[in-house]
Amino acid sequence: MRDVFIIGTGMTPFGELWDRSLRDLYVEAALAAIDDAAVDRLDSMYVGCMTSGLFVGQEHIGALMADYLGRTPIPATRVESACASGGIAVRQAYLEIASGASEVVLAGGVEKMNDGADVTSALAAASDQEYEAYQGITFPGLYALIARAHMHRYGTTREQLARVAVKNHRHGALNPKAQFQFEITIDQVLNSTQVADPLRLLDCSPVTDGAAAVILASAEVAGKLKGHPAVKITASAQASDTFALHNRQDLTHLGAVQRAGELAFIQAGRTIDDIDVVELHDCFTIAELCAMEALGIAEPGKAAALVETGETTLGGRLPINTSGGLKAKGHPVGASGVAQIVELTTQLRGTAGKRQVEGARLALAQNMGGTGASCTVHILEGAA
Amino acid sequence: MRDVFIIGTGMTPFGELWDRSLRDLYVEAALAAIDDAAVDRLDSMYVGCMTSGLFVGQEHIGALMADYLGRTPIPATRVESACASGGIAVRQAYLEIASGASEVVLAGGVEKMNDGADVTSALAAASDQEYEAYQGITFPGLYALIARAHMHRYGTTREQLARVAVKNHRHGALNPKAQFQFEITIDQVLNSTQVADPLRLLDCSPVTDGAAAVILASAEVAGKLKGHPAVKITASAQASDTFALHNRQDLTHLGAVQRAGELAFIQAGRTIDDIDVVELHDCFTIAELCAMEALGIAEPGKAAALVETGETTLGGRLPINTSGGLKAKGHPVGASGVAQIVELTTQLRGTAGKRQVEGARLALAQNMGGTGASCTVHILEGAA
Q: Residue ranges per domain, chain A?
């Protein structure tokens, strides 16, 4: 397999973008990434998007975006894996360059969640429609079950969950693209509206419009560019797990995350101890804790305590979700996995400004779909 | 890039399958393909499906199918490109093996169209929602515009369109998996219900439930198997074109089909004259004629006359759609592109029974989305 590099990144602001449509969003992020890469060539492109059909009545969005980007006749492929659609878009682009079929590939993700269908119903399509959604359980409801199991098994407290949101809002306050650029307190989380016990409104990522894009290239192309320090993708891994929550042996254990993480560490020849900065899929506060445990950042049941120490806050030993995470940056479903790569590339280039992790050289992104039935893990390595 | 071989195929019957759900269909086809390949190993899998969200309220179907197939934790990715979803599933699997990332990959396609949403609305999501569907034009309406332009420009007649349907039903009558296993006459086509002038009911592919699957493998794995003659994928190409019909310079010209065809012939080192059997995307009769012309099977405007000669009927020089095509075999949207590969592999193995093309060694499959905004072309080569 050939080496693959990230040569450009772009993203829209994340938020309620009532003036921009699905296609506007993707094209805006893609053009920003193309501009950042300063390459004219694109051999192929991917679009990660969960449910444009249910949100805005539009499928076939690979070709749509190629057209609106002015890039026909290049191959344009949409991939979908619920909230992991973005991570998979990056991975398919990675595989295409690794194969030798292409030299420069665009991987973008997008979701237009406002101004369309009923969001809760549309998102339920990421869960098991026949055995979960049909029984009336919502996505927050499923993660509430995970949270309750974690509290029961490990003694994790309501306050500890809140600390994840507080940390991510602190980071988001430093990110000019974030949906919520303000800090919150533990009391605010604890007193926010109950969504699905024990999860409250400020435990949940918001409904967001947005897009993010990266340009990947072969070593040959990347080596000729002078604009940015090289960022190499040293691992791109993916795994699956039981689709419905009721089939899990342990509700608190994210098997696909563990598996994808193990594969990624093997591919990169690294361990979690080598990593300097991490983006995790914190669709709900409990999800960040479970992902930390599945990746070995903390022992099972110990993630909440680690968050309390401040080690995962900016300035700590291993900052997690410096972008603000899905919680504060926003969670336009299909874009989130790509936006993680945008954030980490920015960190590895050393251009993250107020949220820069000093000396960051190795970064890890974990993006998952549904209640963890699909997961991608990418490891990125910056210049020494 | 590494060589890639087809080592197994499977498909469900195509039709109105009221007793089988989306997941049942995919798993049935996948198990048949795994059984046919006689390999236990699967490194990864793809699911081509257009609009399971709108049809049955279910997204995230890569992971869903991995689970129901009993194959977690392998990577499982859904790709979507409207009616070209199946061809793209095969191409992504091809790229993954070509890259060296995997040795054995399942590529399946599925669609459950009955027992769900309003089909015409759901299919409209393959066209431009904002500029086509919103104005009230349906998919048959768009292809009717193409047909009318072809008749106007080249003098193609109503009867000539009907001959495509008659030919494909003749072939479908020989295919035990086809939705319509009976012949039809020109008069029956001409007197069938008007759908969108000039297209009548028997010009249109039907609403179909079904799934198809193939197992792809590296040379190393394929070389150890003794079950079937090797079938090699010598080209896998993809292209895009303007999304909405109104942006085409020429309504009768399928630019993405021409482009993908050219790329495929270059990759395979072949010309159209080398090909022995072809599966084309005949979602409407006019689509088969336009695809023939885009691929160089006939000069522009001459495809209808070629069909009249019988050269594209079984027993002719270049049989097209020996499976019955989308018209008679049925068109479960996401499955159709994979089912083409299943048919051609069967032909190249010499096991197509009554519809066998004698001495077939080289085969071509063309699968497209929407009104041709996306297209894949695969060239397969059997043993000498």
A: 4-118+207-224, 126-204+234-381
